[in-house]
Structures are given as C-alpha cells and as structure tokens.
Amino acid sequence: MAIGIIIGGAFNNVVSSLVKDVVMPPIGLLLGKVDFSNLFISLGGDFKTLSEAQSVGAPTINYGLFLNTIISFVITALAVFFLVRAINRVRDFEEKGKEATQTLTKECPLCKSSIHKDAVKCSACTSDLRS
Asked: What is the pTM of this model?
C-alpha cells in the first residue's frame, strides 16, 4: 500500500507537469496567447501579473491556477479509470479461462486426477471410464 501511495504522489507530479508544461501552453496559444497561471482577480489593487500582486501581499482569486488544477484532476481521473478498467479486463479474462478449464475437465473416479471430459480412459491410472 505504501508503494502505491508513493507512486501515486509521483504520478501526480508528472500529471501536474504535463498540464502546466505541455497541455496548457497550446490551449493558451489558441485562446490568444493566454497564460492560465497568470489569470487572477485582484481584490486589493491593480496589478498586471500574479507574481506582482503576491509580492505585495494583495489578496487574489487565482482562477487560472484553479483551471490548471481541474485539468490535472481530470487527466489523473482518466488515467486511473483506464488502469482500473484494464485490471478488471485481465481479471475477467482469467476467470473465463478458469471456467473454460473447469468445464473441459472431469475427475477420474479412481485416482482423482483431472482428465478431459470426453476421455474414455484415465491417462494417470488407465482405468476405463465408459461406464
């Protein structure tokens, strides 16, 4: 469980970087060269950049950073969804394989070994199974 938490934390950093450095710049370019990390509403003065407002200590509503966080969450949720879906498919495949194996075999009444369901002689003890 601890390994999963560590890997999840590292995955979160990768997704955050993906959103901040790869996904958002093209979206910002398409929307007229908008830097989403610099979108904010100042509640205490008129500032051109978020870093300028933060250096003065002005209260701000950072909706651009919030959008980045929402997109990171959606990408992480999709990745987890597809991972769980793949794991469930593997489990279903294994269960169907077990069911298929169980329906193709039967147990020898004498030596209790597993043999094909249509066998007329046991391959382990050579007893006749026709009766």
From this structure: 0.58
Cα–Cα distance measured from residue 51 to residue 43, given in angstroms and rounded to the nearest whole number:
14
What are 10-51's pLDDT values in tens digits? Answer: 877 888 788 878 887 888 788 777 777 788 888 878 888 888
Domain boundaries, given as residue ranges, for the chain: 2-104
C-alpha distances (whole Å) from 131 to each of 21, 103, 108, 109, 119 are 73, 20, 12, 11, 12
CATH number of this structure's domain 2-104: 1.10.1200
Q: Which 8-state DSSP code applies to residue 37?
A: G
Q: How many CB atoms lie within 10 A of CB 28?
A: 17
Asked if residue 91 lies in contact with residue 104, where contact means CB atoms within 8 angstroms, the answer is no
Question: Containing H/E element for 105?
Answer: strand 105-107
Could you give the CA distance from residue 21 to residue 45 in angstroms, rounded to a whole number? 29
Q: What share of the chain is helix, strand, coil (3-state, %, to 5)?
A: 60, 10, 30
DSSP 3-state of 45: coil
